[in-house]
Amino acid sequence: MKTFTNTKTTALWLLATISFSLLSVKWMFAPAAWLAPAFLILLMKEYKPWKSLLMGLSVLYVSSLIGSYKVMPFPTIVFVVVALIGALKHLIPFFLFRLLSKRIEGWYATLLFPCLYVAYDYLNGFDGGGTWGSMGYTQVNNDALMQLVAVTGIWGVTFLITWVSALLAAWYSSEFSFSSIKKPATVCSSVFVVVLIGGSIRMNSLWQKETTTVRVAGITGQNLELLQSTYEAVFGSRLDVDLSKLTQTSPALQELNKGLVKFIENPTDPIFAASHLQMEVFQDSMLSVAKKEAIAGAKFVSFSEGLLFTTKATEGKLIAKARKLAAQNQFYLLLTMASIIPGEVTMGSKYLENKALFIGPDGQVLNTFFKNKPVPLVEPSIQGDGKIPVIATEFGRIAISICYDADFPCLIRQAGQQNADIMLLPSGDWKEIAPYHAWMAKVRAIENGFSLLRPVSNATSIASDYYGKVVGSNDFSSVGEHVMVSHLPTKGIATVYSKMGDWLAWGCLVGLVAFLGDFLLISLTSNRASIFPGKQDQ
C-alpha cells in the first residue's frame, strides 16, 4: 500500500511539474492549463498541510526554473531568487484550498478553488507584476473562448480553467464516480458551451456591418550601432559581436551596455561626438521611413517603444523635425523617445523619460504620454501620471499607452471607458517572450472594444481588431528597420467589461468571504465530509 502511495505521489508530482512547465512563455501549451491545477490539488491533498506546502512549492519552483530559464533578462542568481518568490506567491491559492476544501461540503465546493485563484490573481496584479503569467492567457488562440473577456475581463477565462481543474480533481478523488460531481459538472459544461457558442456568434454575427478602416503603419528598428559607438568611445576598441543574434539575455549585450551607461552619465563628454552623430543619423532614417509610409497612404504612423534615443538637451531638435514632417505630409505621428536625464546610473535611479508624443497633421503636439508602468527591476524610467489619454480625430478616438502598461487591465480600461476606437501601443520586447506578450495586449483590445496597433522592436508586432482577430503580424527580431502596414476599423464597439470593469474578480472576492463564513460555521457545528477526500489534517 505504501509503495502504491509513493508511486502515486511521484506520478502526480511529475505530471504537475511537467504541466506547469508547459504553460511558460516558451511553449504556451494551452491544454496543459486545464490539467495542471488538478494535478497539484491532488498532490497536495495527499499530505498533511505543512508538508503539502513544501510539495506544492517544489512543483511550482522547479517548473518555473524550467519554463523561465533564459527567458527573463536577469543574472542567474537574481533569476533563481525571483523564481522562488514567484513560486511562493503562486502557491497561495493552492495552499488555502488545501486547508479549506475539507471543511466545505456541497456541489458549490467546486467553486471554492476558482474563487480562490481568481481572487488571488486579481489582488496579485497590484504588486507591480500586472497580469503577467495569468492562467487565462494560455487560451489566447481560442478566439471563441476569448470573447468572454469582453464581459468578464481575463478573469472569466481563468475562472473557467480553474473550475474545470477543480472538477477533475474531485472526480478523481471520488474514484471516477460521476454522480458525486454530476450537478457542478453539468453547470460547468453548460456554461462552457454557452461561452463558446456566444463567442462564435459574436465574432461571426450576420448582423455585423461593414466598417470603415484606416491605414496604419508601425515602424520598428534597432539602433545597435549606438551601443557599438558608445562602447568604442569608452573602451577604445569595437566589440566584435553578431548584432543580429543579440537578445536581452545575451552576455554580449550586457557588455555593450557598459559604454551606454557612461554615455548616460555624461552625454556631453567630447568622446561621444561620434555617438551623437550616429544617434541623429538613425533618427533621420526613421523619420524618412515614416514619411514614406505617409506618402503611401498611412494616416497613423507609430514607432516602437523608445525607438529614437535622445537627450534632454537635444530632444527639441528631434521634435521639431517630427512636427514639420507630420505637417508637410498630413498624417498623425506617434513619436516615441527614450530621452536621457544625465546623472549617475545606480540601482533604482531614474535616468530615462520613456515617452510618446502624439503629433497631429497640423504639426501640433496633441499629447505627451509617459509610460505609466516601467518594468520593475529592469526599466529606469520616470513614471507617468496613471492616466490613459484618448484624442478625438477624424479617423476615430485614439488611445495611447506603452508596452507593459497593457499588462494592467484596470489601467487600460480607461481607454474603454472613454470609448476609444484604436489604441496605439508602442512596445519593446525580446525574442524569448514573443509572441506571448503581444497576445496579452490583444486581450486588452477584446476587453475594451478597440482595435490595436502594437509595433515592437526585437520581437512580434501585431495589429488586431476589437475581436482579437490579428490583421497584421510580423517578427522583427532581426537587425534593421521594419514596417508593418495594416488597416484597422475606425469605430470600436461597446463591451460589458469597459462599463463594469472587474466585476467577476470582485464577485470571487465576495464569494471567498462567503466560503470562509461557511467554513467557520461548519467548523463550529460539525465535521462534515468534503467532496475532496484525502489525508486528515490531524
Structure, explained:
- This protein has 538 residues and is α/β, with parallel strands linked by helices.
- It has two domains: 2-205 and 505-525; 213-224 and 272-490, Nitrilase/N-carbamoyl-D-aminoacid amidohydrolase, CATH 3.60.110.10.
- 48% of the residues lie in helices and 14% in strands.
- It contains 18 helices and 15 strands.
- Strands 1, 2, 3, 4, 5, 6 and 15 form a seven-stranded mixed β-sheet that branches. Strands 7-8-9-11-13-14 form a six-stranded mixed β-sheet, with helices on one face. Strands 10-12 form a two-stranded parallel sheet.
- Strand 13 (460-464) and strand 14 (470-475) form a beta hairpin.
- Helix 3 crosses helix 5.
- The protein is globular and about 75 Å long.
- It starts with a helix and ends in a 13-residue tail after the last helix.
Which homologous superfamily in CATH is the superfamily of the largest domain? Carbon-nitrogen hydrolase
Please give the number of β-strands: 15
The stretches of 5 or more residues where confidence is low (pLDDT under 50) are none
Largest sheet: 7 strands, mixed
The CA-CA distance between the termini, in Å, is 20 Å
Q: Could you name the CATH class of the largest domain?
A: Alpha Beta
- What form results from the Cα inertia axes? globular
Mean pLDDT: 89
CATH architecture tag of the largest domain: 4-Layer Sandwich
Radius of gyration from the alpha-carbon trace, in angstroms? 25 Å
Helicity range: 40-55%
Alpha plus pi helix count: 18
Kindly estimate the percentage of residues that lie in beta strands according to DSSP. Answer: 5-15%
How many discrete domains? 2
CATH level 3 topology of the largest domain: Nitrilase/N-carbamoyl-D-aminoacid amidohydrolase
Class by alpha and beta content: alpha/beta
